[in-house]
Fold:
Amino acid sequence: MKIAIQLYSVRDCIHNAEDFFKVLEEIKAMGYEGVEFAGFHGVDAASLKAKLDELGLVPVGAHMGIEDYLPEKIEETVAYHKTLGTLYSGVGGAAHDTVEECEYAAKALAYGAEKLGIPTYYHNHTEEFTPLENGKIGMEIFAEHTKLEVDTYWSHCAGMDNYKYITENKDDICLLHVKDGLNRKPLSLGDGDCDVAAVVKAAKDAGIEWLIVENDDPVPNGIEDVKRSINYLKTLI
Structure:
């Protein structure tokens, strides 16, 4: 099992390409083995690939916009991902209030997977576990067309048993966001009420290779927060 970071967690430390590369160096030094992107900060794919190779960081995934998987932009998306060597590609969310909206986003991701030649995924918040007009939850509809990246804090907030959900749906899940929090406010791992140990056990039992640390609201800053999180997570693996 390997640990990556969703770089949205350290966005407060990145203001330009120079900052971006410095942050990559810092997270590598902490022990992170991979990264999931939330934007590329104006860096071309070849330069970013060279930096990742230098550091030995794996480009696990990237949160894109749903429009990046549509015909008008897919070739640009394919070119960047092919150069970077990304293992997966997905979205951090999309319109999901109706069956029609879920199917639209899911089919766009399926089209993206076909063109990219790698799995695409949908990342949840809480609402995707609420039944829609046909009785299904959004996550079921997404899983019919694309892979899932389960954000285990938001699934916890939705009342899901993470161990049960992950192990029972392991064939649909490619990545896990490991996140903690309290009263819907994200916190460093170990500081909230999410059962992070159960998530790690579920990942092991389900054969999920990558755990991705994320904090939407790091304190006092992204770098210090994600260092605490990886140190805690290492005690569970």
